[in-house]
């Protein structure tokens, strides 16, 4: 297997576009849900199936990407993404739409796993967080624009054209990757069988770095997912904001997230990953505490919730580059598996916590106010603080000991 001939700069340009395929498939789709429900009778199942397939499919796809390489899996994922989006645009029933959206979710898993694994293939561990931060900045820009563009298309052309736009985006990206995305996986020793994994899944979970950094990204994503899932009910249903006003809230959060990913790169260069993660944890917990105080002291005011969400988004923009890149830092030969299980953990935590919180938020009359949205974010902030100040120092000590042993060995030889 030959390493990629494409220069790192070309991949650095492709990475934001590859990561942005996720908000293209989800954020631009949200404004279409009412129109889909009106025409086909149901819309929520199509979104649920996409999320479930996206989370579960990452596990086998990670192993496949380690066995046969990133390029074929990525190109196949983009191709299936195009086919699924076109089939969704032609769907004549809610069941058909849910089925093709599940296929699109699995295709999205292939795109995400291969793009994140390629970061570890092309860059050493200490640079991966910087590269991922740049990629997530691009994702944030698309997440900022996608809901507005999706709403415009639904209003003027109909919901089917939203899926058509997804297909066009993926088709252009497929052509770009076919031309410029070479195989990034390092060449395997000829004496090593293709199925060899150097410990496989056991080695992935034995890595302290994987466990810690995956926990960072999962906790942060679980908190922000509860906001995305429940904020319409809180702001529109409970607090009575007009839908048009609410639309600016997630967009504003995306803008803050973009700024946080840019700040994350500067913090990483200045302080390194451990201190940067502690800054993110303090921001996450502070944002959740502001929201909790608002629920307690000003239960009918949106301003504490908005301020707390803004601060939490700052922490989220720091945690995701660190967590996603850090999870694969010690596992260059198993980057596909590490990425897939880290991604699955994020989706599993978000889905389970979101379903539990939604049960309390959907009660008639909103007897619990905004607490069902705020409590998971408070738990996430607390967990991130414990990880950053109690668990991450163990990893820091381990790395320092390894460096000292390496130093001693070099001096002896």
Can you tag this structure with a few keywords?
disordered N terminus, 0% strand, 413 residues, Growth Hormone, Chain: A, mainly alpha
Structure description:
The protein has 16 helices and no strands. The protein has 413 residues and is mainly alpha-helical. It has two domains: 7-183, MFS general substrate transporter like domains (Growth Hormone, Chain: A, Up-down Bundle); 199-413, Growth Hormone, Chain: A (Up-down Bundle), CATH 1.20.1250. The longest helix has 42 residues, at 371-412. The radius of gyration is 21 Å and the shape is globular. Mean pLDDT is 85; it is low at 1-9 and 189-198.
Short summary of the structure?
The chain has 413 residues and is an all-alpha fold. The protein has 16 helices and no strands. It folds into 2 domains: 7-183, Growth Hormone, Chain: A (Up-down Bundle); 199-413, MFS general substrate transporter like domains (Growth Hormone, Chain: A), CATH 1.20.1250.
Overall tally of domains: 2
CATH C-level label of the largest domain: Mainly Alpha
Kindly report the average pLDDT value. 85
Question: How would you classify the helix and strand content by structural class?
Answer: mainly alpha
Counted by DSSP, the helix tally is 16
Helix content: over 70%
Q: Radius of gyration in whole Å, from Cα?
A: 21 Å
Distance between the termini: 34 Å
Low-confidence stretches: 1-9, 189-198
The named CATH superfamily of the largest domain: MFS general substrate transporter like domains
Count of individual beta strands: 0
H and E order? HHHHHHHHHHHHHHHH
CATH fold category name of the largest domain: Growth Hormone, Chain: A
Largest sheet: none
Shape: globular
CATH architecture annotation name of the largest domain: Up-down Bundle
Beta fraction: under 5%
């Amino acid at each position: 297997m030959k390493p990629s001939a494409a220069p790192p700069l070309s991949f650095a340009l492709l990475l934001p576009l590859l990561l942005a395929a996720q908000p293209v498939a989800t954020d631009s789709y949200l404004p279409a849900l009412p129109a889909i429900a009106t025409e086909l009778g149901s819309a929520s199942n199509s979104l649920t199936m996409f999320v479930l397939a996206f989370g579960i499919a990452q596990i086998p796809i990670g192993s496949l990407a380690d066995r046969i390489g990133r390029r074929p899996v990525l190109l196949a994922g983009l191709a299936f993404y195009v086919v699924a989006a076109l089939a969704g645009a032609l769907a004549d029933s809610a069941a058909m739409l849910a089925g093709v959206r599940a296929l699109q979710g699995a295709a999205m898993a292939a795109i995400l796993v291969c793009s994140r694994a390629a970061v570890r293939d092309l860059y050493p561990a200490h640079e991966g967080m910087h590269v991922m931060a740049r990629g997530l900045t691009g994702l944030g820009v698309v997440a900022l624009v996608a809901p507005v563009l999706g709403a415009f298309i639904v209003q003027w052309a109909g919901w089917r054209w939203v899926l058509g736009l997804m297909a066009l985006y993926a088709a252009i990206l497929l052509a770009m990757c076919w031309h410029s995305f070479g195989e990034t996986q390092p060449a395997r020793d000829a004496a090593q069988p293709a199925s060899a994994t150097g410990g496989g899944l056991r080695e992935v979970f034995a890595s302290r770095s994987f466990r810690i950094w995956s926990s960072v990204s999962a906790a942060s994503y679980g908190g922000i997912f509860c906001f995305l899932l429940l904020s319409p009910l809180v702001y529109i249903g409970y607090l009575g904001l007009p839908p048009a006003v609410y639309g600016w809230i997630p967009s504003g959060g995306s803008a803050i997230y973009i700024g946080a990913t840019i700040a994350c790169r500067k913090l990483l260069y200045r302080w390194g990953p451990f201190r940067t993660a502690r800054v993110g944890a303090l921001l996450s917990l502070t944002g959740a505490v502001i929201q909790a105080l608002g629920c307690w002291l000003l239960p009918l005011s949106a301003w504490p919730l908005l301020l707390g969400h803004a601060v939490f988004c700052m922490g989220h923009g720091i945690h995701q580059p660190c967590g996603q890149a850090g999870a694969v830092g010690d596992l260059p030969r198993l980057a596909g598996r590490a990425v897939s299980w880290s991604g699955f953990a994020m989706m599993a935590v978000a889905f389970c916590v979101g379903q539990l919180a939604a049960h309390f938020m959907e009660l008639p009359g909103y007897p619990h106010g905004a607490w069902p949205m705020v409590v998971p974010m408070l738990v996430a902030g607390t967990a991130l603080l414990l990880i950053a100040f109690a668990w991450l120092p163990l990893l820091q000590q381990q790395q320092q000991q390894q460096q000292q042993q390496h130093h001693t060995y070099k001096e002896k030889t």
